[in-house]
Amino acid sequence: xxxxxxxxxxxxxxxxGVLTNTATVHAAxxxxxxxxxxxxxxxxxxxPFVPFDLDHDYGEHxxxxxxxxxxxxxxxxxxxxxxxxxxxxxxxxxxxHALANRKNYLVQQRIQADGVEVYPGSVAYxxxxxxRGIPRAVVSASANCRAVLRAVDLERxxxxxxxxxxxxxxHLAGKPAPDTFLAGARALGVTPERAAVFExxxxxxxxxxxxxxxxxxxxxxxxxxxxxxxxAYGADVVVRDLSELREAAARGRGQA
Length: 256
Prior knowledge:
By secondary structure, this protein is an alpha/beta fold. The chain has two domains: about 150 residues, 3-Layer(aba) Sandwich (Rossmann fold); about 90 residues. The chain has a six-stranded parallel β-sheet. The termini are close together.
């Protein structure tokens, strides 16, 4: 029992925060990178140093978005203007791309040092999806998506992977635009209304709703009002873990 409506016959999973606990790794890397930058910016500009706020800034501006888009969105919120730069900028440079590269460097360091944790409830849910022969894909903004899936032995379960590398190659707009989820549906050969989106990020839930997907599952790993925000951005249902969908279905409230 999967807890999905009858009209849904495929699944599109975000990675970070839905299948793996790398969302906390990403959040810590964003904070480390931005706090270092903001301290340096304050000393240059004379503005007060206001740290990156994990409770607000992370969810509102960067979570679920491509790295460069996240940098732009956060800097815009602080009215800070930097040169765009290029993807080859060193992490030490003072450009938007350099900050994005610095964040990616910090994430890779943390993953190498600490490994990757998977959510057991999500793995059990995914295994049942596979056992039922339901088409499934991962749709993630992360360019490290495939490496993470391999590290936790989940790549073999996926029929398609739409990640940051694919998005860049195919010129797909990042979340909250629906383009990457729509690409995932195309890769599975299904229409959006026949697919369920599983997302923990506000930008991802917004993308699922904007794409006209048949069911949007918000995953609340944060608390502190995040469930309400997920619903406001378009989630049909919000759970703390995907195991709750299976439990609800087993109690007769689900439909598939």
